[in-house]
Fold this sequence. Notes:
Blueprint: E1 2-4, E2 7-9, H1 11-31, H2 33-40, E3 50-51, E4 58-59, H3 74-94
Parallel strand pairs: 3-4
Antiparallel strand pairs: 1-2
Helix pairs in contact: 1-2, 1-3
Amino acid sequence: MIKYNAVYYSYNLLIYYMIICYSVTLLQFTSSNNLRQKLMNTGSDILVYAAEEKLLGIDYSSYSTTGWVATENWLGTALMNIREKLVRIYLMYFGR
């Protein structure tokens, strides 16, 4: 069990949440050409989801460029991983 935002979670539950976050985001951005293009247009930028809920994103009320850790930005991390995979797939099929 770990404590996160005054709530205790089991490691298995957190891993389950991370898998769901990644899977849903992957499905959303691979099924829509418009969303996929918007994601690809971000280039190599670091993506951060700023919201009150700290598990998927970071707390926007205390946002600073160095005041957050990657474990608090699940959605942004998932988006960056999906973008990287889409770039690799594009390069594999269409070359450089």
